[in-house]
């Protein structure tokens, strides 16, 4: 019985640390998920911008062809 009494403070401390760890991990995972969502949105925006750039390049090429016809 003395063994359990000696062990009790360490078990309480371990339980407290485990609880804090789980809270920190939940917060971290939530932050990671939001960062992934932001990264996906940023990728989508870059894709849209990239598409616009391609359209502008096509227009520029057509304008160059028109100038050559003169």
UniProtKB/TrEMBL annotation:
Q: Which protein is depicted?
A: Uncharacterized protein
Compositional bias (Acidic residues): 50-70
Comp. bias regions, Basic and acidic residues = 8-23
Organism superkingdom:
Eukaryota
Quick one: where's region Disordered? 1-70
Source taxonomy: Eukaryota, Viridiplantae, Streptophyta, Embryophyta, Tracheophyta
């Amino acid at each position: 019985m003395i063994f359990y009494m000696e062990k009790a403070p360490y078990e309480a401390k371990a339980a407290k640390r485990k609880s804090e760890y789980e809270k920190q991990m939940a917060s971290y995972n939530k932050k990671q998920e939001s960062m992934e969502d932001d990264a996906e949105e940023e990728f989508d925006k870059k894709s849209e911008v990239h598409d616009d750039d391609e359209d502008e390049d096509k227009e520029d090429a057509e304008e160059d062809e028109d100038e050559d016809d003169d």
